[in-house]
Specification:
By secondary structure, the protein is of the alpha+beta class. The protein has two domains: 118 residues, Chitinase A, domain 3; 143 residues, Roll (Chitinase A, domain 3), CATH 3.10.50.40. Belongs to the FKBP-type PPIase family. One of its GO terms (molecular function) is peptidyl-prolyl cis-trans isomerase activity.
């Protein structure tokens, strides 16, 4: 965990324990952990921030630090006093804070119902304002939008280059931290076979029944594995990735239709085999990442995989008509 984030969490826990929240309009409660002394955000500004979104019972719903994906958005006109846009005007660039939005007030003032099934009174955010691009009082909208577009495009490019440069170090650290003795293929895939399985390996077009857990090489801010998908229901629940609509247990995956590193790795074991795959981003989601799956650009991935069965095709395989939602499907073509 980054040093600054450790301090932020320590401040959050310490101040929250003292219940030292200030009261604001619309049922708002907030704590400012750090005041950098800058100008406060105002309507029309564009902000870049990291945040953790939690339920009232402290269940993490979203964490941009874990995803390594800060969010950028314009600050709109407030709908009511104490709403999300209004609360941001309490902070400036470099500030960090925790605030609680009253869900009953939000529902009553916005006309949008509370999330189905929730009994919470509040939704809780811990934020760090990374950057504020302020709109001048007399600045034309078109001029400001062009300036913002240029600024954040350059900021994004710099972030991508930083992630690209850090990838090799992430892989090396993961291998060292987990004391792995890997084998590296010509493509750059690294793997450890813990159980080779049967002699017959899957071939192109075969349907493999696979148990797997996919995670990032970096830990979450709470020190736990940063899991983005799994076929194991217990792991899904423990990691906060459980989906009531998902089918857990071995999942069918046709060889040739997954990301390249996964396809290559599965051909190294037979039925009953187990393998750990450390997949560099060029064999996964590359420079685009897969934001909807929590995978940022140039992210190396780790899969713990068990091949429970191999099913031969009844007819010659055909190309898939489109991508599915599984994070092991191929990255979109550029």
């Amino acid at each position: 965990m980054k040093k600054g984030l450790v301090i932020l969490f320590a401040a959050t826990l310490g101040l929250a324990a003292c219940n030292n929240y200030k009261k604001g309009p619309g049922g708002l409660s907030y704590i400012i952990h750090k005041d950098a002394g800058g100008a406060k955000i105002k309507e029309g500004d564009i902000v870049k921030l990291n945040f953790i979104q939690k339920s009232e019972k402290d269940s993490v719903m979203f964490n941009t630090w874990d995803m390594d994906q800060p969010q950028v958005f314009p600050v709109a006109k407030k709908v009511y006093a104490g709403d999300m846009n209004d609360v941001l005007t309490l902070f400036g660039e470099g500030d960090s804070a925790t605030f609680k939005l009253d869900l009953d007030t939000m529902a009553a003032r916005s006309g949008q119902p509370k999330p189905p099934g929730t009994k919470d009174k509040y939704i809780v955010f811990t934020v760090k304002i990374e950057k504020v691009l302020a709109k001048g009082a007399n600045e034309a909208d078109s001029t400001f939008q062009n300036k913002a577009r240029t600024f954040f495009e350059n900021d994004y490019k710099a972030s991508i280059e930083k992630k690209k440069g850090a990838e090799a170090g992430k892989i090396k650290k993961y291998i060292a931290d987990n004391n792995l003795k890997t084998t590296t293929t010509a493509s750059g895939l690294q793997y450890v076979i813990s159980k080779p399985g049967d002699a017959v390996k899957p071939a192109l077009g075969d349907t493999m029944m696979v148990n797997y857990t996919g995670k990032l090489t970096t830990k979450k801010s709470d020190g736990k594995d940063n899991i983005f998908d799994t076929s194991d229901e217990k792991i899904a629940k423990e990691s906060g990735k459980h989906n009531a609509m998902a089918q857990y247990g071995p999942r069918p995956i046709t060889l040739g239709r997954a990301i390249p590193g996964f396809d290559e790795g599965l051909q190294l074991i037979g039925k009953g085999g187990k393998i750990t795959l450390i997949i560099p981003s060029n064999l996964a989601y590359g420079e685009g990442g897969m934001p909807q799956g929590g995978i940022s650009p140039f992210s190396p991935l780790v899969f713990e995989v068990e091949l429970s069965d191999i099913k031969k095709p009844a007819v010659a395989p055909v190309a898939a008509p489109g991508a599915t939602i599984s994070p092991i499907t191929p990255a979109p073509a550029k």
